[in-house]
Amino acid sequence: MSGAASGRGRGAARSRGRYGLASRLRSGFRGRGRRWELESIVQDSGDRSESDRLLRSLATTGATVTARSRASRLGLVLAGAALALAACGPDQSMLSPMGANASRAAGLWWLMFWIGVVVWVLVTAATLYALVRRRRDRHDPLTARRWENAPLVWGGIVLPSVVLVLLTGVSIDAMRHRDHPDASQATVVQVIGHQWWWEVRYPERDVVTANEVHVPAGRPVRLELTTADVIHSFWVPALAGKIDLVPGRSNTLSINTDRPGVYEGRCAEFCGLQHAKMRFRVVVEPESSFQDWLAAQGTSAAEPADDLAARGRQVFLSASCVYCHTIRGTAAVGSVGPDLTHLASRDTLAAGIMPNTKGHLGGWIVDPQQVKPGARMPSSDLPPDDLQALLAYLGSLA
């Protein structure tokens, strides 16, 4: 009786040790995955055969988890690439150039792309050849070593050097041949970056607007770019490359296209909370249309056409708006925010993030932080009647 009981006790202890070891191994693997901890657990178990079996199982599990981890990382990379490509919509693609400088940049991009494809094909072919090639049983070691080093020299030293020298030379040549028109030969436009909107000035005609750059088709345009606060980057992919706006400096960028249209642009340098909502438009139009637009923008604000708009002007001049915005022809001469003299002539509001309609404008005035958190414009608690009058006045500023 005592011997049987003792046998059953030893069997139960062995079983508990076996299951306890498995549990501790799984716990150690999931919690930390450190081999030295697992080995210490195994050494303490005392059951070598069971330890070996569990370690083999653990190695298989670890390989499976590693494969899954690699697959997850690959999925994240592919998802990121898909998002990046989705951001390159047709309205802002550098691969659909509409200007001379943009064409050079696109040509350089395609050259780099096809050279990369050729290099990838060569490297892949060499790798596959090395995997399937069998060594001959009899050969001269010295001769074989020299032959085996040749691909390494050509593929690892000569080819990369030639490719890098070629791409460097082509890039420098593309930069040297960018258009740099003189101020006397081009339309000069001054662009000043703010957090988070664009101030646009035409010094020859004393015109100031915001978030829209109007330029004539078929004539060179010289953009003089500065910033009022932090570093921004002016980028219109279809018309030209990007260039930074650096505090204390004035950089220049040229645009020259004979294709009228509206081209989307944006800030390409992280500049704060609303960097992604710092957009603008470049409107390319025929010379006659550009001159008409320029003449209209150079005038002062029109007088209110009715009593409601007249009341709206009084609301504007008596509210805090007057300290930040300018409306030429009135007492409002603020310089913190955009010039509103011809607000109704613009297609968008808040640096291109929403259409310029009465409803959107009202929502922007009442609670700009809801639309663009962090914007410098404070919320307004105007009574409904005053808000409607203000919207009527601003809507008349064409």
Brief write-up:
With 398 residues, the chain is an alpha+beta fold. Helix content is 50%, strand content 15%. It has ten helices and twelve strands.
| Radius of gyration over all CA atoms, rounded | 34 Å
Percent of residues in beta strands: 15-25%
Net shape = elongated
Q: Report the oligomer.
A: single chain
Number of helices: 10
Specify the CATH homologous superfamily of the largest domain. Answer: Cupredoxins -  blue copper proteins
Task: Sketch the topology as an H/E string, one letter per element.
Answer: HHHHHEEEEEEEEEEHHEEHHH
Alpha carbon gap, first and last residue:
107 Å
Average pLDDT reading: 77
Indicate the structural class: alpha+beta
Indicate how many domains the architecture comprises.
4
Spell out the key features of this protein.
Immunoglobulin-like; single chain; 398 residues; five-stranded mixed sheet; 4 domains; alpha+beta
Task: Summarize the structure in words.
The protein has 398 residues and is α+β, with helices and mostly antiparallel strands. It has four domains: 2-71, no CATH class; 100-176; 187-297, Cupredoxins -  blue copper proteins (Immunoglobulin-like, Sandwich); 307-395, Sandwich (Immunoglobulin-like). It has ten helices and twelve strands. α7 (307-318) packs across α10. The chain is elongated, with a radius of gyration of 34 Å. It starts with a helix and ends with a helix. 24% of the residues are buried.
